């Protein structure tokens, strides 16, 4: 039997090869789905969700902060993109950037005081989920529960400038592009000085500070990167669905993103990627099958999975990848 060398394993798991594999897999998916409109739409939602889980991995996995504000950054980015498009006919290509920058500004506004005064663990989590609820309430007060449909303001059926298409494939591939960028950012941070500092902070924040690491600064950097990506994803989400609504600021979405990141394994890039794909696929299946009968069933499933993973594999799906790698290395050296 041909042995597997350590070098071949490292090469197979290299950044370039990993990105190529994911690009090919996601690239041919619409073909495998027969370009079915509904399935491609679901695939787009899976890609968007997975991008958010990978972004959360930066603040939650590397930096060890239980952030529950994903819906705040996503909602803000999406609302700004959609409202600028509807009321000012500003192209989403610019609107998404504005939304991402607004999300970064919000992250700094909430992150600086919370990190400055040392909010950690459950207190930090409570402050971030409160941010989602506050923004949802502000949106209610300004716009009410009325839903705005982009098609009423931008009647084009096909426009690259306004990101209006009569099929979901363009949105899907835009989502894949953001996913790949988010993957690249994760890998780059992991190999950088920032990643080293963040992992040190995650292991022991007090010890990291004693070693001279500026804990507040680097946690804020991680939060800003995470918020920028999620805000950008929110802009794509709003152009895909075509609806501007207070439901953008849904606390359940924040919980789903965090749970997927935890189940995938804190700090694990493959784990976050696979957990995002699997959990969102299961969620959409449950929503389509039982949504009208049992509301919130997917959250119950998430809870059961989280308990099961915590008991059996506290490291999440990352433990499975570590086990496989050790087996391959043992086989290669044997």
Number of helices: 15
Radius of gyration: 20 Å
Shape: globular
Q: Average pLDDT value?
A: 86
Order of H and E elements: HHHHHHEHHHHHEHHHH
Label the structural class.
mainly alpha
Strand content: under 5%
Tell me the count of domains. 1
Helix percent band: over 70%
Strands of the widest sheet, in order across it, are 1-2
pLDDT under 50 segments (min length 5)?
A: none
> How many DSSP-defined strands?
2
Q: For this entry, what is the oligomeric state of its chains?
A: single chain
C-alpha termini separation: 11 Å
Largest sheet: 2 strands, antiparallel
Written description of the protein model:
This protein is an all-alpha fold and 334 residues long. The chain has one domain (6-333). The protein has helices at residues 6-12, 15-32, 37-62, 70-88, 92-116, 121-143, 150-153, 169-190, 193-203, 205-210, 215-241, 251-264, 269-290, 297-312, 318-333, and strands spanning 148-149, 243-244. The radius of gyration is 20 Å and the shape is globular. The N and C termini lie close together (11 Å). The relative contact order is 0.18. The model has no long low-confidence stretch (mean pLDDT 86).
